[in-house]
Amino acid sequence: VESAGPRQPVVGHPGQEFVHVLSGRCEYVIGEERLVLAAGDSLYFDATVPHAALPVSGEPCRLLSVVASED
Questions:
Q1: What is the pLDDT of residues 47-67, one digit of tens each?
Q2: Measured between alpha carbons, how far is 7 from 69 in angstroms, rounded to an integer?
Q3: How far apart are CA 24 and CA 22, in angstroms?
């Protein structure tokens, strides 16, 4: 997630999603909830709920995202 890049839209898609922060910090929006994640933090959630990763404090954030879906 680059601070200088375009903002990622908040969207949902079929499946479940696992996100692990490799480096930096980011804000993760899932539905109405906002979480600030740092290196080493992880999330697992229903990917049909609209979600997005957003930069925090102008620093880049590297994420590993894994999606599992039967679709």
A1: 999 999 988 877 889 999 999
A2: 25
A3: 7
Q: Are 3 and 58 in contact (CB under 8 A)?
A: yes
Stated pTM of the model: 0.83
For the purposes of burial, counting CB atoms within 10 Å of the CB of 69, is it exposed (0-12), middle (13-18) or buried (19 or more)?
exposed
For the chain, count helices (H), then strands (E).
0, 6
Quote the DSSP letter at residue 5: S
Q: Cβ–Cβ contacts within 10 Å for residue 53, how many?
A: 19
pLDDT on residue 1: 64
Bigger pLDDT: 55 vs 15: 15
Q: Are 62 and 37 in contact (CB under 8 A)?
A: no
